[in-house]
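Customer ticket, subject: "Can you confirm the structure for Lon protease-like protein 2?"

Message body: Hello, I'm evaluating your service for our small team and ran a test protein. I'd like someone to confirm that this is what the system normally returns, since I don't have a reference to compare against.
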Amino acid sequence: LLGMLDTSVPVVAKFRRLLDSLPRETLPDVVASMIRTSNKEKLQVLDAVSLEERFRKALPMLTRQIEGLKLLQKTRKMSPDAEKRVLSVRKGGVFPGRQFNLDEEDEDEDGDDMAALERKIHGASMPEAALRVCLKELKRLKKMPQSMPEFALTRNYLDLMVELPWSKSTKDSLDIRAARTLLDNDHYAMDKLKRRVLEYLAVRQLKTSLKVIVSGCTVRPAAKSD
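Agent reply: Thanks for trying us out. I re-ran your input and got the following:
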């Protein structure tokens, strides 16, 4: 996939060097992060336990992206006007046999998509510092070609920032038994870390406002946990 992209772009060259230095067992996760696809498909890769299963789920995504770029490049070589007709590689990848006209309507569609994302960013009620970062990344995203791996990374980052519960909070649950069961079900091993979490909850039962020193860092718990 990287061989089909412009290596003169710094992010592509940097990503190529990164892949050369990564262990092979991390490739499915890297593929899932750089390819433009749905969050559901990416979660399927992350949910897979065995390495073989992770490769089986990531390989079709990679193949689909490569085939889409091949068709795009082939179409561009046919004629200058052919650039207006390419296979869609948005939101789930390539759809074999279907062609879309990239005329003004498609440009409007891209603009509407970015406009909708910008509205979501403004409506997420995030802190001012986070809002500035998101708007800066959105500005970069608008100028970035979709074929760049960084496009998918930046878009996924913005989607995550929008989905975070910035202005929502829940009532603290200090049930130590329930917390222990939840930690054991969701996390393997890490007994020392889980014990510190349970100790923190035990202290919170006795005192609602406190400071806890964890590995040299001061933690000031809020009245409500996000």
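A couple of notes from the result: The longest helix spans residues 51-78. Residues 81-107, 212-226 have pLDDT under 50 and may be disordered. Feel free to reply with more questions.
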